[in-house]
Design brief:
Residues 421-437 have a biased composition (Pro residues). By secondary structure, the protein is mainly β. Helices cover 8% and strands 48% of the residues. The protein contains 2 helices and 28 strands. The chain has a 4-stranded antiparallel beta sheet, with no helix packed on it. β4 (72-79) and β5 (85-91) form a beta hairpin. The protein starts with a helix and ends with a helix. The protein binds 2-acetamido-2-deoxy-beta-D-glucopyranose (NAG) (4 copies). One 2-acetamido-2-deoxy-beta-D-glucopyranose binds at residues 39, 85, 88-89.
């Protein structure tokens, strides 16, 4: 081989090793490539959640089939800020019989963390809610404990919020406990020894039919908000309802209120997010509203009086098929990001992960919706997101057959080159002026040069041999 051959091979490697950065029109760009989270890959690893500690550390939890010896179990992996794994992946649940499923994780200000999940058969009847607190070094603090007092039938779908002094609230859905189908209950816990503060309490006031899928978020002043879906309460199918609670005594602040304006068909899968500016956002998936199966919609509220700021808005821009299974996280500057699963081939093949950034003062879109997963073949589903700082966030999801074995957990980090400065709007009137600041095109430019050089060398090689 002559010099040109070597040079060409060198160049191909350079191209492969180049980290093609994808610049977004919201001021962020991909930070490295998407990466594989789980180590044990047999069967399915799914329903992942990600949370940020501080100082760059983050944790991902998920359910894994067959890894704990019996059906699903709960596993987790901690990471350093540069995405290297901090220690090995570890098993969260002690009780392994049957199915431990749908984990959620939360971080205490003290950097301890807690994982909560649903476990089948462990409380003596159907599913129950269990939890385990860990030290930052992953040692277990105490044993795994049962959250629900009422054990008849199923208690499932837990969500958790951390209050000050390491107190926390866990909420879940429960069957026939409120006298009528599904209902939403919650339990407060003390920081000192993770013992219960009072008894579990009923969250929903309207109990007719079923209430399901609670979501919870805490305000800076320690009050918290729970949202859920309720059947027939808005006059048609499921609708989204919500209630604010005092963090001091867990009493209701104001009344339960309806989040969705559009009530036809189903509004389900609420995600509530309290923002640092004391506004809050509720997002849900709505059937038929965007003209096809389902779309993601949301409403911004004032935390002071739960009044609506502007109108409910469409989060997902692409409307074909279903956009749903969304998650959200807020930046310290009160902007927020919503990520969701879009089916019907928006990413070129089956389900894919999309996301959109918003201003937390007027819910105006910052830039366009963007594709998260780089590997697009087959399905990518169930995203979750965590914010590290105004200039860094992460999205995790499960991808089908990407690693060659059923579902596996992947992640992509994003970094911003600037921090958009939101202007607080005193009146609850949306200002329709999205002004995305363009980010640097430098990286894509150098990639283009590299690709052009590569093409020139490829053509030279072609002429050399033929
Ligand atoms: C996207 O995937 C392709 C092939 O799977 C890979 O070569 C490329 O490096 C990936 N790019 C990013 C930004 O992850
Ligand atoms: C991955 O699995 C291998 C084999 O079981 C083990 O040696 C290694 O420590 C694991 N790595 C992590 C990060 O869990
Ligand atoms: C919505 O889609 C239209 C048409 O494809 C596109 O021009 C626009 O930039 C998109 N907006 C967002 C916020 O993604
Ligand atoms: C990159 O450059 C193109 C035109 O060269 C421009 O349309 C686009 O907005 C730029 N993108 C970013 C993220 O700056």
């Amino acid at each position: 081989m002559n010099f040109l051959n070597y040079f060409c091979i060198f160049f191909i490697f350079t191209i492969v090793l180049l980290n093609p950065t994808l610049c977004l029109d919201n001021g962020f760009e991909t930070e490295g490539q998407e990466f594989h989270v789980n180590n044990y890959t047999a069967n399915a690893q799914a329903h992942q959640q990600v949370k940020y500690f501080a100082d760059g550390y983050f944790i991902v939890v998920w359910e894994s089939y067959g890894q704990d010896g019996d059906e699903y179990g709960i596993f987790a992996q901690m990471f350093e800020s540069d995405r290297t794994k901090r220690g090995t992946e570890f098993q969260v649940n002690d009780y392994t019989s049957d199915r431990q499923y749908r984990p959620v994780v939360a971080i205490f200000p003290s950097k301890k963390f807690i994982v909560v999940w649903e476990s089948n058969g462990q409380d003596g009847s159907g599913y129950g809610i269990f939890a385990q607190v860990f030290d930052f070094d992953r040692t277990k603090i105490g044993s795994e404990f049962q959250v629900n007092e009422y054990t008849n039938s199923d208690q499932s779908g837990p969500a958790i919020a951390i209050l000050d002094n390491d107190k926390f609230i866990i909420t879940w859905q429960t069957e026939s406990q409120d006298g009528n189908g599904g209902g939403i209950f919650a339990q407060a816990f003390s920081s000192l020894d993770y013992s219960k503060i009072g008894s579990e309490f009923q969250v929903n006031t309207y109990t007719t039919n079923s209430q399901y899928n609670p979501t919870i978020s805490a305000f800076a002043n320690n009050d918290y908000i729970i949202a859920w879906e309720s059947a027939e309460q808005d006059g048609s199918g499921y609708g989204i309802f919500s209630q604010v609670f005092s963090g001091a005594d867990h009493s209701k602040i104001g009344s339960e209120f309806q989040a969705n304006d559009y009530t036809t068909d189903q509004q389900k899968n609420a995600v509530v997010l309290a923002l640092p500016n004391d506004n809050f956002m509720i997002a849900w998936s709505s059937e038929g509203q965007d003209g096809s199966y389902a779309g993601v919609y949301a409403q911004l509220f004032s935390g002071a009086d739960q009044s609506k700021i502007g109108s409910e808005f469409q989060v997902s821009n692409y409307t074909d098929g279903s956009q749903s299974y969304h998650a959200a996280a807020s930046f310290p500057n009160s902007n927020f990001v919503i990520t969701w699963t879009s089916d019907n081939g928006q990413d070129g093949s089956a389900d894919g992960i999309y996301a959109q950034m918003f201003s937390g003062y007027d819910a105006v879109k910052i830039g366009s919706e963007f594709l998260v997963n780089n590997y697009t073949f087959s399905d990518q589903e169930w995203p979750d997101t965590a914010v590290f700082s105004n200039t860094e966030f992460i999205i995790v999801w499960e991808s089908h057959n990407q690693g060659g074995s059923d579902w596996e957990v992947y992640a992509q980090m994003y970094q911003g080159e600037f921090s958009p400065t939101p202007t607080p709007t005193p009146t609850p009137t949306p200002t329709p002026t999205p002004t995305p600041t363009p980010s640097s095109n430098d990286t894509s430019f150098s990639n283009k040069i590299a690709i052009n050089l590569f093409l020139i060398f490829a053509i030279l090689i072609f002429y050399h041999f033929f």
